[in-house]
Amino acid sequence: MNNSSDTKTLSPVTQATVTVALAVYLVGLVLSIVGNTGSGSSAVVRTIKSRLFSPWMVPPWLDLGFDYRLTYGNDEDGDFSIEVRRQGDGKASPVRLPGRLTGERAARWRRLARSIAVEDTDRDGLLAAAVGRGMFDDVGAEDVTVRVLRTPLVDRGGPPPAPVQASSARVRMVGGELQLIRAEPRGEVAPLVRPDASGDPSDAGAGNAGEATR
Amino acid sequence: MNARTSAAPRAVSPPSSTGGAAAVGDAWNRFWFSATNSRPLALVRIGAAAIALAAWWSYAADLQAWFGPAGVLPADTVREWRSPSGFSLLDWAATPAALNAVFGGTGVVFALLLVGFATPVVAPLAAVLWASLLHRGPILAGPADDCLSILLWCLAIGPAGEHLSLDRWLGNRAGRPVPAAGWRASISQGLLQVHATAIAVGAVLAQLKGDVWWNGLAAWYLATGPRSGAAGLVPLLERSEYLTNLLTHGVTAFEILFAIGLWCGPTQQLVARVGLVGWPLVGLLAGEPLWGLAMALFALPLAVRR
User: Fold this and answer.
1) Is B59 within 8 Å of A12 when comparing Cβ atoms?
2) Among A40, A41, A99, B81, fewest CB within 10 Å belongs to which?
3) Is the model's pTM score more than 0.80?
4) In the beta sheet, which residues pair with residue A79?
């Protein structure tokens, strides 16, 4: 780049070309902000951005929404960490990340943990499987449990909260194939009613509500 | 719009003053094409390169654990995760040695940017390599990484090595004169100003969707967060809800005033100088110190203009 050319009069053609480039970029910048919010975006914005702007704004890492909320005080803003341990071995010490790491390095592990807990569920546990696979050597087994723990935010005047499990998955290698078995959160289920011992179906469940099992 | 740091008469076609469209055109040309001193850009270059080295270093210890052949983020997994348009040079670094080489090369490029050597080549290369590193592990990227990417591209556009650089020192020894003000510095600094506003607006819009930014408790949650550098404030905030509220509303007000004030002539420099202090403090409170520093760099050219 020749710096001395800067001082000369800008030719109308160059000025027009740069103006068009700037205008197109500024439109892309606005669409990136509108199209990358946590609230989602409209179909028209999504379509225009993804077809016309994302192909050249994504590679240079410029397709950014800047929705830096910093905190909403909710569960997703808690402190996330990863814990990997050998499956079925409660005595083995787990690998914890970020553990005692600090600074930006720890922040990157926290982002990975948060992504596993918050975003990975929509992607078939892609990240959990990759993390489990990558930890086989560290744990010394090819059958591990990958847990993400979330320490909730501290409420004003409240005691320091204990970490809770945000997600859990078993990752194992079986016959050269990687398997992921997710521990689904326990939800409400309908009671399973055992038929009355007398065999009268009309009485089924009437007196057995307390015996509902999962 | 205000011309920034103009050090020489504008090198653009003479303005015509008839009609609103002409006025807009004149304002556009003044903002983007005025001959502008590139010295502030050199300061941004030094700051951005320092942040880039810090951010780059945060990958170093875990590089193989994340991106290595047996790492937790294999290239195939990341390709499925990221945008289809995403692209990383590190995808091809299939061995630990190749990964170390590309990563080490990135560090060298950032160091060269810091000292300002071969800047016209090094600055775009730094932007490409940084984007490449982020695309290799988009899950690991945070606000500071985003802002750093913007800063590096702005430096790639403008003549960031004309001052305070090894390039300048070598030029002086060879008897080359200091280049006069030019339009590329104007575009580069204009983009910094536009992005400073865009980022502040994006942050405010996102924050105001959350109750804690309205009920004044956001500062409490930020200060008690795991990364906050304001842990010393927690006892004070615990004692006084008013202080917590003031701090929360202060952050919001600062961001709004910053976004608007950068475009008002009389307040522009004052707001930019407040930004030099304010953004690092917000970053410290939020546990994102590099982000705070990066945001301050966006305001730097306006803060130091004469």
Assistant:
1) no
2) A40
3) yes
4) A151
